[in-house]
Amino acid sequence: MHCPFCRNPDSRVVDSRTSDDGLQIRRRRQCTVCGRRFSTSESASLQVVKRSGVMEPFSREKVIEGVRKACQGRPVTDADLAQVAQVAEETIRATGASQIQANEVGLAVLPPLRQLDEVAYLRFASVYQGFESLEDFEAAIADLRSDKELR
Ligand SMILES: [Zn+2]
């Protein structure tokens, strides 16, 4: 991508963000020669492979719906949900993969959800990490507790 002002072929990325529909990545770039800034936009297709083997385009809305269920009755706002979904999407896109398994989407949701609400995190983790017994819950809770003690 040449600088539109001086045609220098080299620029550095100063900011990247994904559009709300998850289909475009906008980057702010700064020319390394003249220092002027410009934007580029690229579309990145990301396919999710469902357990049935069917592929569908990644949808941030679907992530939000899944997280919303785990957040029922919790003090979590729509903005919080959007934030969790954005962090998860950025984590996935940072891997550079164009195709991911549905459960990897769930795993990418866990860290930001853990920051947001521990009860919702446990509910969500129990599904995506396949908790099978009380011991699994106890281990996850012990993990949350030990994190708190470190803070
Ligand atoms: Zn330039």
UniProtKB/TrEMBL annotation:
Q: Does the keyword rRNA processing apply?
A: no
One GO BP annotation of this record:
negative regulation of DNA-templated transcription
The cofactors required by this protein are: Zn(2+)
Explain how, and how many, cofactor molecules are bound: Binds 1 zinc ion.
Highest taxon listed in the record's lineage: Bacteria
InterPro entries in the record, alphabetically?
Answer: ATP-cone_dom, NrdR-like_N, RNR_NrdR-like
Per UniProt, the unnamed Zn-finger stretches lie at 3-34
Q: Which residues form the ATP-cone domain?
A: 46-136
One GO molecular-function entry: DNA binding
Q: Which UniProt keywords apply?
A: ATP-binding, DNA-binding, Metal-binding, Nucleotide-binding, Repressor, Transcription, Transcription regulation, Zinc, Zinc-finger
Name one matching Pfam family: Zn_ribbon_NrdR
The entry's function note states: Negatively regulates transcription of bacterial ribonucleotide reductase nrd genes and operons by binding to NrdR-boxes.
| HAMAP family, sorted | NrdR (MF_00440)
Q: What is this protein called?
A: Transcriptional repressor NrdR
